[in-house]
Amino acid sequence: MHPLYGTTAVAGIGMCQYKRGSSPLPEQGVLAKAIRIACAEAGLDTADIDGFVSYGDDKNEPVRLMPTLGIKELKWSSSIWGGGGGGIAGAFGLAASAILSGQASAVIVFRALVEGASGRLSAAVMAHHLNDHMLAAGLVAPAQICAIRANRMYEHHAVPKQAAEELVRASYFHGARNPEAVAYDRSLDLDAMRNSRWIAEPFRLFDCSRENDGAAAFLMVSAERARDLNKQPVYLLGCANGAEKGWGDLLENDDEQLYPTTGFRPIARRLYAETGLSPADIDVVQLYENFSAQGVASLIDHGFCTYENVAEVVKFENLIAPTGKLPVNTGGGNFAQGFIHGIGTAYEAVKQLRGESANPVPDAKLCLLAGGPGAPTVSSAIFGREIP
Amino acid sequence: MTIYDGADAPYWNGLTEGRLVLPQCACGDWLWPAVSQCGTCGSENIQWLEQAMRGTIFSWTRTWHRFGFTENIDLPFISIVATVEGCGIRLLGRLDDPDQIDPVIGENIYGKIGATRVGERDIPTIIWRRG
Ligand SMILES: [Zn+2]
Prior knowledge:
A: alpha/beta; two-stranded antiparallel ribbon; B: mainly beta; 5-stranded mixed beta barrel; about 5% helix; globular
């Protein structure tokens, strides 16, 4: 069995989310608050945290959190490379690596984003990639880069655009029923969605995730230690991270077959091989959707459907809890739960497996977390309520 | 003016002089993004060869939202990924779109060197047209 299989677990979670520009605390304060909530849930003193992992160029260098959390000794601080959300699931694998190799024992996985401190996320993501080739072409935002890929997927690979709408609707359906979601208690106006203003074709406003302020934190410990803490453990069963030849920051010169994908094919291959699981075993998916088309492409990459049958699988009725066969983004996802660089998708993965989701999937045992699609480096993970 | 010092400096200097030049290794591989050494054969013998500004549309988007850094481009505008004829290298560029007709993947295009003003700089770029 692979060393990551069921050997570490999430023992506590905390999330604080606000409308963009309305955080009551500075970024570090919000983050520290989320970490305190996660540790309090687990019954672990924040002084005993000894490691941190983040992704996406988070600006909160862990050593600076020591005073406010009363941390005695920092033993591990690291981040997944890359400016986008591609590293979110990989961050859990990195935390597990620290724990399993004995280099740390109580590791916080986190992401914090408050506009005043970190600026606009889209701008920060692009600052990571921008060069004169892109500036000269007027391609300066993630929406545009993903739009170009989406057009090729729609036009050349004949993926129906309707699939993207079904996915957006499912996210808003769940968000409307989740008190922690930005879209809580609001129904999606289909006409308003379909006629919302163009951003970059084929994306209208409702095809794009919109940023929130906030932070989320996850306390990771060994599986054994998690069983002694207060909360039901949610086990990490597998995690894969990276890119294959012909994919990456290649000025759009990716391999022609990989171009309309979101980079997950090698990740999914490894994830399923290392866990012995397959798409049919997955009960619920938390899908990072920066843009609607990339969410659909991520589902294809992860083997839940193909270019040929995507229209039959990615249907609203099929994507919603509790009745759909492939419930996706049961918290509302980046579109409707909120967007703190995707960390809310991991939060919902844990809530769902604990049976605490606002949109519970009956008897959900396994949840796939798919990281930011289309990023040069991407990652995914599978979490389990038990170790099958 | 900008001094280009990356591996792709000959590309930028070429555009400034009115030519499209792209890098080919002695082994025959075209190397893009530009690198200093070929990843296939290890050679550092890389020739920058002039290419005709002809190609096809690989993909496209028409931008309607005013993103930062695009202030000097009239909205809406089309950005494309263009496959350069012969070498197969894909370049980012802009497509002239006077009548707002949706591009078609695979459509033939030809280019002329223009510039995009970003902040205080004029970045040389290929403006593509259909035909
Ligand atoms: Zn070579």
